[in-house]
Structure formats: C-alpha cells, structure tokens
From TrEMBL:
Cofactor(s) this protein requires: Mg(2+); Mn(2+)
Subcellular location: Cytoplasm
Name of this chain's protein: 3-isopropylmalate dehydrogenase
Isopropylmalate dehydrogenase-like domain segment(s): 5-360
Similarity-based family: Belongs to the isocitrate and isopropylmalate dehydrogenases family. LeuB type 1 subfamily.
A single GO BP: L-leucine biosynthetic process
GO cellular component: cytosol
Source organism, top-level taxon: Bacteria
Species this chain originates from: Roseovarius marisflavi
Binding residues annotated for NAD(+), in chain numbering: 77-90, 288-300
SMART domains: Iso_dh
Site location (Important for catalysis): 142, 192
Subunit composition and interactions: Homodimer.
PANTHER family: 3-ISOPROPYLMALATE DEHYDROGENASE
C-alpha cells in the first residue's frame, strides 16, 4: 500500500515557523515509528498571491482535492490588507473549505493540567477538561438566501436567512455521533428550537439519526443560550457538542478560551468520505499569522502540532499515535517549558519556537 499523502500549506507570518516544527514531528514518526507520509508543500494566502497573483493557485487546489489530508499554517498579514477582496489571503482558505466541501468543523477544547491557571475560570472547573465542538460550516445563516441590505419604505433593512436542509443536518449529526464513539460516547445538540423553525427541524433530524443509527451514543438537546451558560458554569459535563454555523462560531470561541492561549488551539475541518474511505480533511491551528511576532522565534507551535495529532486520529485512524503526541505536549508543559505566550509569572524565561519543537521531539523519544 502506498503511503498516505499530506499536503502542507504553511502560508504567511508565523505559519511557516510553526509548520517547521510540525515537520520535525512528521519526520520523527517516519524515523522512529515507521509511519511515513508522502509530503508535498505548496503556497497559500499572501505567499501564493506574491508568486501567482491569486491566494490559491488552481494546481494547489487540485493537489488539496487529491491529498489524504491538508495541513495549513495561517494566512494573512498587513502587506495584504489593502488587496482587492477577491484576492485577499483569506479567500485562499475559504476556497479550500468550499471546494473540498468541509462541512464539519471540529474544535477541541482541552485543558492541560499545567496550564489550568491560564483559564479565566477556576482551576477545578477546567482542569482535565476535554470537549469537542462540532460546528456545521457550510450552510446556515452565513450562506442562506435572501441576504442583503434592502430599501423598505423610507428606511433600509438588513436581511440574513437561517436555512438548513434535512440532509445538511443529517450529515453533521452523523459526524458528531461518529466522533463521540471515538471519545466519551456523549453528544449534546444545541439549537434554539424554542424560537426558530430551523431549530425545530435540527432537533428532529438529530434525534432521528440517533434513534436509527446511533442509539448506543448518549444524546441530549440544549438551547444554545443555555449551552453558553453551561460552558462557563460546568464545561466538564460535555463530551461532543454539535451545533449550527452561527451558534458554533460563538460557542467554539467561548469554549476555546476556557483553555487559555490561542497558541494551544488546534482544529479540523472534515468533509465527505473519499473513495479510500478517508474524509476530505484540512487541519489548522485556530490562530492567525500573528504579524506582531513573526520572525522572532516567539510563536508557539503547539496548536499546529496538535492539529497534526488530529490528522493522525481523524484521517489516519491512528488514535494511539495522536495520544502519543498529545502526551508529549503535556509532558513538556508539565516540565515547565513555555513559549512567551504561556508565561504566567514574572521571572520565567520563555523558550523559542524551535526549542519547543525540539522538546516535544525529545518527549516523543521518551515515550518509546
Ligand atoms: P492572530 O491569531 O494572528 O493573533 C492574535 C494575537 O495572538 C497576537 O498577539 C499574536 O501574536 C498572538 N498569537 C497568535 N498565535 C500565536 C502563537 N502560535 N504563539 C504565540 N502567540 C500567538 O490574529 P490577528 O492578529 O487578529 O490576525 C493577524 C492576521 O492573521 C490577519 O491578517 C488575519 O486576517 C489573519 N488570520 C488568519 C487566520 C487563519 O489563517 N486561519 C485566522 C485568524 C486571523
């Protein structure tokens, strides 16, 4: 069997810096675990614009469609802020998500014990937290028609439309139930069925998918506003949360902050299975290109490294190896090693991006 393929798109700003550290981890798996990937690297965002005049070349798009998984760093930066909307770096990212039809956005919120003090919540509320928000990414109010600003009588009216088809709800529900089976086997579905028809349909379809095909998974329903409250009151009650595009946008950012730093947060966006059974998939840190620290060796590579761990788990069915990476990160943090964004107390000395990557490789060695 041929090696699984990985397309690496480092992008702009700190993207290439953190991706260099991910490549060390990929190389470690080849050298020490006999797990090798066919890796190719290409341009996205401002870097692609500089070379091709577009933020994603058609050839790169074609490679992404073929790859078993895409790993992306970050896009954007001040040099591109005044470009026409159609060629802004973010358009490259949006094109990838749209053309690969990545409808399920996975945002884990995991609190490493060593960083529990970083949360804005009390330590005992977040220590050991491990939840996953599954957000529908390609439909709902961000895409529904009609939309626009229209004239109505002598004033203007702004309109957006929340719209979900049964099949769109069905496929995101299945994604959530499948994930739950690989984790704590619990799903909480969030909508506003009390005030929105799309919420009523959402609840009905999620329940039907559950009853027909996933009765072994524990399912509960919650109004999204209560969900937001529960996330800050007692987040550990959740395992997988599945919700629509708008509520997911807000709830996933809320959950992310339970864990502290932007430099720690990975994400995955998954689509339908390909012919080989693997889902179309793109993995990327939640953070952006961080122009304020680019080129200074200050970027925390952990979000990007944990994104690769998600690829191991969700694209390549290597959950044990993903856990190995997560444990290595945990060990390095428990040993007190910190990039600048993770420093709490005065007098602590930060380590560099490269040193953090090297320390994780050493921790991986120790795991053998
Ligand atoms: P940002 O995430 O780049 O940075 C926000 C703050 O967090 C900055 O102070 C930055 O230094 C810090 N930070 C982010 N990642 C870090 C890391 N790994 N280690 C240490 N510190 C880190 O968000 P922003 O400043 O709003 O945006 C900067 C650029 O990135 C903009 O051009 C924006 O459009 C783009 N952006 C891209 C993505 C993406 O590629 N997915 C996401 C968000 C923003």
């Amino acid at each position: 069997m041929s090696n699984p393929s990985l397309l690496i798109l480092p992008g702009d700003g700190i993207g290439p810096e953190v991706m260099t550290e991910v490549v060390k981890i990929i190389d470690w798996f080849g050298a020490k675990r006999g797990i090798t990937f066919d890796v190719s690297t290409d341009l996205v965002g401002g870097a692609a614009y500089d070379k091709h005049g577009v933020p994603l070349h058609d050839d790169t798009m074609a490679k992404a469609q073929e790859a078993d998984a895409v790993l992306l760093g970050a896009v954007g930066g001040p040099a591109y802020d005044n470009l026409d909307f159609s060629v802004k770096p973010e358009r490259g990212l949006l094109r990838l998500r749209k053309e690969m039809d990545l409808f399920a956005n996975l945002r884990p919120a995991q609190c490493f014990d060593a960083l529990a003090d970083f949360s804005s919540l009390k330590k005992d509320i977040v220590a050991g937290l491990d939840i996953m928000i599954v957000r529908e990414l390609t439909s709902g109010v961000y895409f529904g028609e009609p939309r626009g600003i229209f004239k109505e009588g002598n004033e203007r009216v702004g309109i957006n439309t929340q719209r979900y088809t049964e099949s769109e709800i069905d496929r995101i529900a299945r994604a959530a139930f499948e994930l739950a089976r690989k984790r704590g086997n619990k799903v909480c579905s969030m909508e506003k069925a009390n005030v929105m028809e799309s919420g009523i349909l959402w609840r009905e379809v999620v329940q039907k998918v559950h009853d027909e095909d996933y009765a072994d998974v524990e399912l509960s329903h919650m109004y999204a506003d209560n969900g937001a409250m529960q996330l800050v009151r007692a987040p550990k009650q959740f395992d997988v949360i599945v919700t629509d595009n708008l509520f997911g946008d807000i709830l996933s950012d809320c959950a992310a902050m339970l864990t502290g730093s932007l430099g720690m947060l990975p994400s995955a966006s998954l689509g339908a299975p390909m012919a080989n059974g693997r889902p179309k998939a793109m993995y990327e840190p939640v953070h952006g290109s961080a122009p304020d620290i680019t080129g200074q060796g200050k970027a925390n590579p952990i979000a990007c490294i944990l994104s690769f761990a998600m690829a191991l788990r969700y694209s390549f069915d290597m959950g044990d190896e993903a856990t190995r990476v997560e444990k290595a990160v945990e060990k390095v943090l428990a040993d007190g090693l910190r990039t600048a964004d993770l420093l709490g107390n005065e007098g602590e000395t930060p380590i560099s991006t490269t040193e953090m990557g090297d320390a994780i490789v050493i921790a991986l060695d120790a795991s053998l």
